[in-house]
Amino acid sequence: MFKDFKNLLFPKLCACCDQVLLKEEAFICTFxxxxxPLYANFFDGHHDLxxxxxxxxxxxRAASLFYFEKKGPIQALIHDLKYRGNKELSFYLGSWLGExxxxxxxxxxxxxxxxxxxxRQRMRERGYNQVEGFGKAIAEKLSAKYTDTILxxxxxxxxxxxxxxxxxxxxxxxxxxxxxxQEVSGQHILLVDDLVTTGATLEAxxxxxxEAEGIKLNIATMAITK
Length: 226
Ligand SMILES: [Zn+2]
Known about the structure:
single chain, alpha/beta, Rossmann fold, two-stranded antiparallel ribbon, 10 helices, globular, binds zinc ion
């Protein structure tokens, strides 16, 4: 009763088009849900990340839920997730992709899900990592572990020191480091992020994680730039 009343005063809006959601709709309206640009080619070697990261990352499998286009519905969705505090949306997207990955049999080949970490300052401003729910929901669907204590991001001030002395690619490479690597040695890791554009962040994370013995890297993202 109270919830209905609250909904009347503060109606829940679709994360893509801002229309008021119906009672049975969650996060995304039915119209948008059917219109969203789903990324279908995520199986094995056909994902664009294999091309993007070729020669840079030893990549096993990759998956993305959506195509991203500037000014498109996925831009609105990710904006909602990052800047409007809609962190439950992250779980929702993770359940969605997790279901697809489960159907594709990924639960047999993923041991641990690791999110790309946020800058500490961003974390303070936002209060949450926008890929946390996404990663946790996927881990749950695939019966894998979720851990955010291994892959770390250096603070901005430390990056500045590197900037003056090193090439740009090395700067990015040095933005991430990993701890307790023995916990993941020999494991199949699923690295998760929100949006892939150049793949530079994912490559940097791989370099940090690859310090561990015998890991296999898989990647899942909410979206990939068209
Ligand atoms: Zn909508």
